[in-house]
Give the backbone structure.
Amino acid sequence: MLTFKQNQLLSFLIKKIEENGVSPSYEEICKELSLKSKSGIHRIVKSLEERGYIERLKNRARAIAPKKNINGQPYFANVISINKKINDLKLKEKVKINNIETNRIPLLGKIAAGTPLEAISNNDKFIDVPSSDPSFRECYALYVEGDSMIDEGILDGDIVIIEKKQDVKNGDIVVALIDKEEATLKKFRKRGDTIALEPANKSYKTQIYGPDRIIVQGKLKTLV
């Protein structure tokens, strides 16, 4: 399962390699995907690499290519939903999918990339991610609703992986709980005695809050 932007990047990558024999530059990818920020491209590339769709070519700066299996066909990683309650499983529980060891992460609900939503509520779905990165063990997943982070390559309907941590720095994309009631996905920035939650879309305004009104519930790790 790929997001729209991930599909778009992968298709463009395959097309350019077939046409020219080399992978496109990040500038070309930004233009094709209508993104203004290279950080958004980095995030999509990292997500595709982690999920086994692409690989970085050695000794070539920023060179990427579709990953293939022994039959020469593109390799696709797995995403699954499991009908069990979150409390029945530990976040770090490992399972095997097609003989590949993975970590099981709960898919907790929706997060707003736009107007804040009511606080996130649990459901009974999970996704699986590669277990090679131990930091995935302290993560959870959320659906994105809204378009305020599109210039970072995060679109309405995407799934984000959030690392559970409160120690974040300026510019990090975080899950922020506002007044213990509403959750939103925004860039975090301290401004004196206040906290700014910044969108990545010029159609939205930065929102300023007192530090007592904001609880950071995690930092964006990657897209699924």
About this structure: Helices lie at 4-20, 26-33, 38-50. The longest helix spans residues 4-20. The longest strand covers residues 100-112. The chain has a mean pLDDT of 76.
